[in-house]
Each structure stands twice: as structure tokens, then as C-alpha cells.
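Sequence, C-alpha cells reproduced for absentees:
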Amino acid sequence: MSDSLNGVTPSERLLSELCQRSFLRLWSYANPHKDDGHEFCDVIAVFENHVFIFFDREKVLPEILVTDDPMIRWNRWKRDAIDRQITTANGAERYIKSGRRIYLDAKKTKLLPVKIDLTKVIVHKIVVAHGAAEACKNFSDTNVYGSLAISYHDMTHGTPPPFPFMVALDKERPIHIFDTHNLPIIFRELDTVKDFSDYLDAKIEAIRKYDMLTYCGEEDLLANYWMNLDKKTGKHFVGVPDGTVNVVMIGEGEWKDLIDLEQYKSTKTANQISYFWDDIIQRTCDNWLNGRLLGDADLLRRPSAIFEMAKEPRFMRRILVEHIKEAIENFPKTEQLTRHMRFFRSFYSKTGYVFIQVWIPPELRKGEIDDRSIRREMLRIACGAAKNKFPDLEIVVGIAIEPPRMTTSIGEDFIWMDCRGWTDKDREEILDSNRAWGFFDTGKLREGTHTEFVAPQTKSVARARPRKPGRNDPCPCRSGLKFKRCHGR
């Protein structure tokens, strides 16, 4: 993302920071411009075939008093903060699909560096409306957070009756409306590209499925999404399992009920470890942007290891980091040249990861040995050995580091190996090269079952084992005899 955020409002700065956290600096840009020099949107994020365009508007809505006509103030605020942004967003969608250029500056000197495939593009239009929260809470005792209520209707049958703090939208041209309260919640809970795009896709599917979809706040809709899981597809969905229902209304309080669940709290705690994965991606992106990344990786214009890593959803990042942590802890302390390899599957069934720790003793480095070249060559061979071991793999991502148990230096080597055209020649070359290292020749591969949500840990109750009676103690059967003359015989 552009480091220059001069001239943006505090709310636009917040939006930019949230997008940078979720989409990373390489794939999100603040304040891009059209080919006529006018601003295109507040933030654009592009990843694979998904394009997210954000429009941020801050306009304070004065408190609506009992003596007022509530619809007058509400309609004025809605027209400026939402309706005009919707019109702009629809125009921006047409602009993208027309193939016109997008620039990073008003002078049109820098093109948007991420390519958009117009044959597959999915445009997500998001309007963030600030300024109504306090007026909303004061207007209704039932709205404790000040979130805007949203309702999607078929507008061909007429618009629904207007009501303050309820935004009626056309289900045939869906757009997403966030507000001051739920914007941070959405980005905190859906802080990977995969999680965010899956939620928006599920929401659009529900909007098209039902004649009317209504909810009291975006956070309540998100709670409904998290609580609904199709076991056949493994995907979350919005709405209800009953296929005969054509109208869905989600009341306020769904989000509060969800975050009070022990399972939710346990999952959030367990997910903390997953941000190590994000740190690796962000550090590599920063090195690339600052010209410090070695090798020929172009993180924007062609597939890369970092691109594959950024595709992983949050729960999968947790699982991957748990594997990495275990491998780091199990690395043996030694003074000899040692390598330690782990293989684990991606969220995407035909992608796998090879994680290698390579320790080269200092005395070997004093010669002409190039430890970085050795590490990269070992990584290449290990990734090829993974393909030979698992023929179904199409992409293998290699990550190599020096073992943290042996050194405090930080640095990673990455390989993105495209195995979709794997030939007998490739297979034989790896077999020959792997004879010296023996990757996958020994050891057993462990299969495990992982779930997205983590069950809360139950506290074990210590139970005292009953003391065995002595020979002269009364027998526990209450016969009146001594134990040695009754059950102790």
C-alpha cells in the first residue's frame, strides 16, 4: 500500500490500516485514481480474481429528537453518507470491467501494479458510513451498539416503507454497507483474504437466494455466518438450513451471543499462534518493497511462495504454525551439518509445504562454502521429493530457515515449485539428487484431523483413590468383621 496517506480523513486512515493488515501492503492501495485524474475510490485491494473497492464517508448525524420529523434528518444523512457512495461504487465497478487503467497517483505516473483478469474478476463494493452511531443509539433503546440495520429487497415490487437507521438495498445490485461499530469487527474476524472473500461470497449467495434478507447489524450477520456450517461442503453460509424459507430476519444480539461462547473464546486464543505466519509474509513483502529481497521473485506479477501463503485462511495458518513450532522444538542440538524436514498439506488439497531447518556449523562457513546456495538446493530437492512422494500435488511451497535453537539470525528462503507439468525426467533427476539427502526415505507421515473451531478445555477433577483398609480395620462391607477375616482373606 502506498505509504503516502496525506490528505485522508481519520476514518479513511483507519480503513487503510485495516486493509493493510488483512490484504497486506502488496495487494492494497489507498486513494487510487482514474485515467481522468479523479479519485477512483478510498482503498482498492486486488488478490487473485477478487477486487475489493472501499468507499469511506464520514458525516455526523445530529441526534434525532422526539420533536423532529425523524425521516427528514435521516434521509439527508443517508443521501450524503450512503446513497451517493453507492452510485459512485456502481460506477467504479463499471470502470473496472471496462478495462480502463487505474493509477496510484493523480498525475498518472504509476499504474496499479496488480493485474486484473477481466474474464474472471469478482468486484466487491463496500461502503463504510460513519457518523450515525450516537444518533442511532439515542433514537432506540434496543440498538445498544449504534449499528445500521440492513435489508435487501427486490426493488421491482416497490421500495419498502422508509424507517430511520434501516438501509434498504436492491438485492439485484448488492453492495455491502459497514459502519463505525462493525468495520473493526469485520476486519478483526475476517483478517485474511480467504476468510473475507468467503464471507462476502456467502452473503451475496444469500441475498440472491432469499426474497428478503434483513439484519440489525453486519456483526449479527457475521455471527449467523459463523454459526452455520454445511458439513457436506465444509463451508459456512448465511441464512437457515430450511430450504423452504424465503425470508430471513436476523435480530440484534447474535454477535454478543457468539462472543460469549467458550468455544469462540478458545478459538481466538488458539489462533494467536497463527500470526507468526502473517509475520513471515509481511516481513518478506517489506523486504521486497524495500529492495532487500534476494533472488528473482516478483511477488506481484507472477505466482510465488508468499502468494500461496497469503491464500491460507486463519484456522489453517494456526495448524501450519503449530507444525512449524513442533519442528523447531524438535531440532537436535548438534555441531554437525544437520537438516531437519517437515511436510504438511495446505488448505488447498493439491498444494503442500516443505519446511526445512539447515544447520551449517561455523567452522564450515569459514571456507568457500555458500551456505545459502546449499540451503536453497536442499529445499529444491526436498520439494521435488514431496512431489515424487505425493503425485497428486500440483504446487509445492518450500520454506527453509536456520534452526532457531542454534542461532538467533532471522531469514527465510522460499521456493514456489509448479509441478503441474511434472515429467519422468523431472522425477528421475530428483531421485538421483535426493540419494545424498534421503528426503522422505525414513520416518512415518502422521495424519491428523483439524477443526476450525477449538473446543474449550475442560478442567480435570482430581479424585482421591480410596485407601485400602488395613488387615485389622473393619471390613468396608459392614459385616462387623475385621477386613482380614472377611473380604481381605
